[in-house]
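User: quick one, fold this
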Amino acid sequence: MAKKTRKQAGGTPATVALTAAGTPFTLHAYDHDPASPSYGEEAAEALGVSPERVFKTLVADVDGELTVAVVPVAGQLDLKALAAAVGGKRAAMADPAAAERTTGYVRGGISPLGQRKRLRTVLDASAEQHATICISAGRRGLEVELAPKDLAALTDAVLAPIGRV
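Assistant:
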């Protein structure tokens, strides 16, 4: 798919944020199947991209504060490692309604970019192994591909080993 220029990009708060920052990215759309059991694995398969390069955005509660974790769809989030990465003691997955309300996105389409309320973000360190990674562009069936360093810079993310296979 062609790279989006500043004028062409838009449509979701995530793509608007990328465009406003002047960050290079590629937008990938695919037909989302509502019956798919895993949004991230569906995206990887639809785009023909390795699941290690497609990252899911999860919202967790770390010591009472909502925190974003961005990990490969090929694995799982290590909640203890997430808590440690932000200097917390306990982490649990956030209530889905709270995650949606706070980020402004629906489950399966939560992006670490362009959130209604900017949350503390941790990006799995494995992202650095790739020139580009894919993350949700803010809705189901839409992914944005960008350099991990750009994602980290735009979200002020901490890089830490928070994913596990």
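User: anything notable?
Assistant: Residues 6 and 22 are 7 Å apart (CA to CA).
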